[in-house]
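Whiteboard transcription, Tuesday session. T.W. wrote the structure tokens on the left side:
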């Protein structure tokens, strides 16, 4: 049991690349923290500094209150799970699970107890005598998890552990990891570029961009109040629609501009808009936008209709329940409540509260 505390952590690689530019973050004891951001934003670097696999150029990393900056990975009381599983191919599953404990001179009976417990929790008991090559991707990932569990560490670190699995298995394993973490209550730091995975797993979500934290908070708080244009468009799929207030088609939105004179961009999520079809009326709190349909994506339970605003404006996606029969080229009106819009400073990208 341990909190992880990062204070102004920096990483400058030999050659001068500043991969992490001062990150401060506290992950409370027992919390599941997910670090999400695009490829190259510094997620793995940050995780590897916590693990001790990468030297720390500046700042402090504490695990359970203890500064670990200069401790070897083995002395940090953490266990890491990687995307490529990192299992020993010539060893059986049982030997893979036992290996780290034997190295630590854990008593034999204790090793047996922990391996049995992990095998039971992960339902890999029937594979213990196989080698990794004789397992499916999902089973291998479970063994990799098992190897982390038997260590009974103060914290788990995950680096994109599900990226090698197919879409369906990814969803299953995601739920398994979450259940497992709830049960073990081990502080976890999980890194992914997949915003959906991040949203569904996290107690605490941290959005990283170019080596800096853009926003941290609960997944819903971030979804509902993104602090910047970067977060607004990175979290949520399809992405939040953006309309520059001084661009084509924005005149119906002028009332949202507020008193400031700075250039502004408005945002609206696809699910907060509706199409005015079949004589649907407009409510008093709604504004109406004219769209010329450019594409229709039918997902099954819902469709996404994309249209260009006022012919030359930005593309706007609208979520429509069920099957949309609209064809590209059609003209359609979309309505959205004024209160559902987000407002951003177009230059800094920072969120502005609606007036
Ligand atoms: N060993 C290294 N030497 C120099 N630059 C590196 C090294 N590892 C990563 N980088 C650079 O640091 C940045 C962050 O990389 P990384 O932490 O792997 O990002 P992510 O995991 O978010 O994709 C990238 O620009 C990457 O090219
Ligand atoms: Mg990475």
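and on the right, the sequence the group agreed on:
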């Amino acid at each position: 049991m341990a909190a992880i505390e990062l204070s102004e952590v920096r990483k400058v690689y030999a050659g001068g690349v500043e991969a992490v530019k001062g990150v401060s973050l506290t992950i409370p004891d027992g919390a599941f923290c997910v670090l999400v951001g695009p490829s190259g934003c510094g997620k793995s670097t940050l995780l590897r500094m916590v693990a001790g696999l990468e030297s720390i150029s500046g700042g402090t990393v504490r695990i359970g209150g203890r500064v670990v900056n200069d401790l070897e990975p083995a002395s940090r009381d953490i266990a890491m799970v990687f995307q490529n599983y990192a299992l020993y191919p010539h060893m059986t599953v049982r030997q893979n699970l036992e290996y780290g404990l034997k190295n630590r001179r854990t008593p034999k009976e204790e090793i047996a107890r922990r391996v049995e417990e992990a095998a039971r929790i992960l339902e890999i008991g029937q594979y213990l005598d196989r080698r990794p090559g004789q397992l499916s991707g999902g089973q291998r990932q479970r063994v990799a998890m098992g190897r982390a569990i038997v260590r009974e560490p103060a914290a788990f670190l995950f680096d994109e552990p599900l990226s090698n699995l197919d879409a369906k298995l990814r969803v299953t394993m995601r739920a398994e990891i979450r259940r497992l973490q709830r049960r073990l209550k081990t502080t976890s730091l999980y890194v992914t570029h997949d915003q959906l995975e991040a949203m569904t797993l996290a107690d605490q979500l941290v959005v990283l961009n170019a080596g800096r934290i853009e926003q941290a908070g609960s997944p819903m708080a971030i979804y509902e109040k993104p602090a910047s244009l970067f977060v607004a468009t990175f979290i949520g799929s399809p992405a939040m629609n953006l309309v520059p207030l001084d661009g084509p088609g924005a005149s119906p939105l002028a009332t949202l501009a507020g008193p400031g004179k700075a250039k502004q961009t408005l945002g609206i999520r696809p699910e907060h808009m509706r199409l005015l079809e079949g004589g649907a009326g407009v409510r008093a709190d709604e504004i109406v936008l004219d769209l010329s349909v450019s594409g229709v994506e039918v997902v099954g339970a819902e469709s996404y209709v994309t249209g260009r605003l006022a012919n030359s404006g930005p593309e706007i996606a609208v979520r429509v329940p069920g099957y949309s029969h609209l064809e590209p080229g059609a003209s359609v009106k979309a309505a959205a409540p004024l209160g559902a819009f987000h407002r951003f400073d177009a230059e800094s990208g920072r969120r502005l509260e609606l007036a």
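Someone added at the bottom: Helices lie at 43-51, 93-103, 108-122, 137-150, 167-184, 195-201, 219-224, 229-234.
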